[in-house]
Design a protein that fits this description.
Helices cover 36% and strands 15% of the residues. The protein has helices at 3-16, 41-48, 104-111, 121-134, 140-146, 157-169, and strands spanning 19-26, 29-36, 67-70, 73-76, 89-91. It has 176 residues and is of the alpha+beta class. It has a 5-stranded mixed β-sheet, covered by helices on one side. A hairpin with a 2-residue loop joins strand 3 and strand 4 (73-76). Helix 3 crosses helix 6.
């Protein structure tokens, strides 16, 4: 069999299965349904579920704007296919707060002005959430290394790092 015939067979198999039955949880809620195999998690979240807090920017895993957590680990949703999340738990910025109560990380970003224009903020918070799940009490160097894939065009890196370190220490209001 020649390479052309083999390619033809592969393409026919792919065409035969153009959708995938996806079952997973998003922000703690189960979801199940058909998804086109080529749809990225970013497209799925924004278009299908109307969770628009996750932003689109570089679409090449460089800027971190589209970061979400999959099973507690940060991923670039712009290049992560939706079907790859099958059977997993996805957390987006919309799922970080508990109802009207902001997460301590979100509150720290507000207190420290860790968000200037706000475009990168959801990705920064999601990456930071992943860091704090893995390393509850990170050093400033660990914060810098962990967030090296998240670009802030406003240059608020100092305030972002301070927000994360403060959230790791707990709510300063509760220490009074």
């Amino acid at each position: 069999m020649g390479i052309g015939q083999l390619s033809g067979r592969i393409i026919k198999k792919m065409e035969a299965r153009s959708t995938f039955n996806l079952s997973f949880s998003v922000n703690g809620k189960p979801w199940s349904g058909e998804v086109a195999i080529e749809v990225t998690l970013l497209e799925f979240l924004r278009s299908r579920l109307k969770l628009t807090g996750t932003k689109r920017s570089c679409e090449s895993e460089v800027c971190g704007v589209c970061t979400v957590l999959v099973d507690g680990r940060p991923v670039s949703s712009c290049n992560y296919l939706a079907f790859e999340a099958s059977g997993k738990s996805v957390l987006t910025i919309e799922g970080v707060a508990q109802g009207d109560k902001l997460d301590s990380l979100q509150e720290a970003f507000i207190r420290n002005i860790g968000a200037q224009c706000g475009y990168c903020t959801p990705g920064q918070i999601m990456a930071a959430k992943g860091l704090l799940l893995e390393t509850p009490n990170p050093t400033r160097e660990e914060v810098a290394e962990w967030l090296s894939g998240n670009i802030c065009r406003c240059g608020a890196y100092g305030a972002i790092a301070q927000s994360i370190l403060e959230a790791a220490q707990g709510d300063p209001k509760s220490k009074d």
